[in-house]
Amino acid sequence: MAADVYERARPSYPAAALDWLLPAGARRVLDLGAGTGKLTRLLAARGLDVVAVEPTEGMRREFSRVLPDVQVLDGTAEDVPLPDASVDAVLVAQAWHWVDPAVAAPEVGRVLRPGGTLGLLWNVRDASVDWVAELDRTLPRAGEEQLRSLAPVVGGPFGPVERFDVPWSQEVTVAELLDYTSSRSWVITLPPDERRAVLDDVRALAEARLADAGSLVVPYITRCSRTRLR
Fold first, then answer.
1. What is the pTM of this model?
2. Residue 101: in which H helix or E strand, if any?
3. Are strands 216-228 and 112-125 parallel, antiparallel or unpaired?
4. Which of 43, 60, 165, 180 is deepest in the core (most CB within 10 A)?
């Protein structure tokens, strides 16, 4: 995946999601699977002491370009390069579906302080809106964008997982919607002719929607899950 397209295309996250995910009094926070720092910058803006971990070199380079003052380390959820009991919270945005929870959950528990919180969040399009439902019907594998966000598996040493949804929306251009579609992993792996066909279909739908509504507003639901270290 081209990290600059990811940085340009992917949406941010609503403040209400972070309000719910972050435990009271948290000071040092790990953004795990940080990508290009979409979530990290929101955490840093709250005055938190943030460290980021990201396994992909290209993403780390883009992260350091946009957030030169935040430390980003090479690592994974299964092998976190931090000391024991060193953070108050671990947040994972758009990434927990990539991990092996049986290995990652104990490893995240290791770096959390007693009673610390693991917070998971995903942005998914709100298909209850007619044009987004039509977009999903246009995309051959749109269901994959749910990313196991409805009931993420964590397991020990954590307690029960709580859920909280935050609806919000973002006005975008046709080009931004195409970049967003292009940044999806399943689109990237399509053969070139199939990828062009998908993007052509998205462009046609977006331009029709823009002509009808005067603006292109993508409604999202940020699905949040949190659990505390036992």
1. 0.90
2. helix 101-111
3. antiparallel
4. 43
Tens of pLDDT, residues 86-112: 999 999 999 999 999 999 999 999 999
Give the H/E segment covering residue 110: helix 101-111
Q: What is the DSSP letter of 25?
A: T
| Sequential DSSP letters for 144-211 | GGGTT-SS----TTB-PPEEEEEEEEEEE-HHHHHHHHHTSHHHHTS-HHHHHHHHHHHHHHHHHHHH
Q: How many CA atoms lie within 13 A of 202 on its CB side?
A: 24
* Range with the poorest average pLDDT among 2-6, 15-19, 77-81: 2-6
Residue keyed to tokens 């460290």: 51
Give the 3-state secondary structure of residue 67.
Answer: coil
Backbone angles phi, psi at 184, to 5 degrees: -70, 140
Cis peptide bond prior to 55, omega within 30° of 0: no
Do the beta carbons of residue 187 and residue 195 sit within 8 Å? Answer: yes
